[in-house]
Amino acid sequence: MLLKRMAVWVLAVVIATSVVPVPVNGQGGAISPVAPRQELVKSVVQDAYDRFRGDTSGKNADYIPALAEVDSKLFGVAVVSTDNKVVTIGDVNYSFSIQSISKVYTLALAMEELGPDEVFKRIGSEPTGRAFNSVEAVVDMPTHTGNPLVNAGAIATASLVSGKNEDEKWNKILAFYSKAAGEKLKLIDEVYKSEAATNTGNKALSMLLAKYERIYADPFESVDVYTKQCSVGVNAIQLARMGATLANNGINPATHEQVIKRDDIPYILSTMMMAGLYDSSGGWSWHVGLPAKSGVGGGIVAVVPGKGAIAVFAPRLDDAGNSVKAQRVIEYVTNKLDYNLYSPSSVGLK
Ligand code: DON
C-alpha cells in the first residue's frame, strides 16, 4: 500500500516537473516578446551573443570611407517589445549610421503625405534581384525605381517628401525618424561628409531616374537629402524602438505617439519582407521569416508584428551588404523564440 502511494507520488512529481511552459507564438497570442517571458528572452539573447561574438567573417563597408574606420569588433543586441520592455547586451549605446534602414522610415513618411496608392504608383515594390545600388536594375525594370528599399527607389522616395527647400525636407525627415525612435536623433557629420564626397554612383542613379521621369524633385538635391538620411546616427536600442513602432501598429511603445499610420504598416512590412536584405531577401524569408531591414553601417532591425523588434549592430558585412553577425543573431533568436511568421505554430498548424 505504502509502495503504491509512493509510486503515485513519484509519478505526480515527474509529470509536474516535465510540464515546462512552452513559449507560444500564435497569432493573436497576447504575450509580448519580453513581458511575461523576459527571462527567457534575456537568456536566448545572451546565448546568441556568446555564440556569435567571436565570428569574424565579413568586412566593414569601405566604399564609404568613414565606415571602414568603425571598430569591426563592436557588437550590440537590443530587443524592445510593444509594451516597451527592453533587453540589451553588448555595445548598445554606440551610435552608428542608420544607412539603408532609413529607407523604411522615409517610405513611411512619403505614404503619410501621399498615401500608399500614390507611392506604389510612383515607386513600385518589386524585387530587383540585383545589388542595392544596381544601375542595370534601373534600366531593366519596368518601373525603373524598383522598390523603396534599393538606392534608386529610395532616392526617388526621398524626392517625394514635400518641403519648400532641401533643408525643410531634411528637417522633416529627421524629425520623423526621431519620433519613431522616441528620442532626438542627429546626423553623424563625419559619415555624411564621407559619403557626400564619394557618392558618384547614387548621383548617376538619380540622373538615370530623371531620364525615365521617375524622380520627383531635383535629382542631386534628392541624393543629398538621401545621403543625410543615411547618415543619421542610431544606437541599437533606438533602432529596436524604431522597429517596435512598426510592430506596434505605428505607435511608439515608449512615447505612445502614433508616428506611422496604422493602415500603412502592412505595405511597409511587406516591402521589408520582399527586399529588406536586398538580393538575399529570399533566403532571409526562407530561414527567418520576419520583415527586416539592413544597412551598410552594420545594423539590422527585424520586426515581429504585434510583439516587438530585434536590432543588432555589428559592422562586418557579407557580399550583399548585410551584417553577418546581425543576421546570425536574429536567425538564432527567431528560431529559439518561434518568431518566424511562417513557422507551423505561427500559421496555426501545430
Ligand atoms: O547609398 C548607399 O550606398 C548607402 N548610403 C546606403 C546603402 C545601404 O545601407 C545598403 N545596405 N545594406
Describe the model.
With 350 residues, the protein is an alpha+beta fold. Helices cover 47% and strands 9% of the residues. It is built from 15 helices and 8 strands. The protein has a 5-stranded antiparallel β-sheet, with helices on both faces. A 3-stranded antiparallel β-sheet has the order 3-5-4. A hairpin with a 4-residue loop joins strand 6 and strand 7. The protein is globular and about 55 Å long. Bound molecules: 6-diazenyl-5-OXO-L-norleucine. 6-diazenyl-5-OXO-L-norleucine is lined by residues 99-100, 132-133, 151, 195, 202, 230, 294-296, 321-322.
Largest sheet: 5 strands, antiparallel
Range of strand content: 5-15%
Tell me roughly what share of residues is in helical segments.
40-55%
Principal-axes shape call: globular
- Give the strand order of the largest sheet, numbering strands 1, 2, ... along the chain: 2-1-8-7-6
Number of helices: 15
Query: What structural class should be given to the helix and strand makeup?
Result: alpha+beta
Compounds present?
6-diazenyl-5-OXO-L-norleucine
Sketch the topology as an H/E string, one letter per element: HHHEEEHHHHHEHHHEHHHEEEH
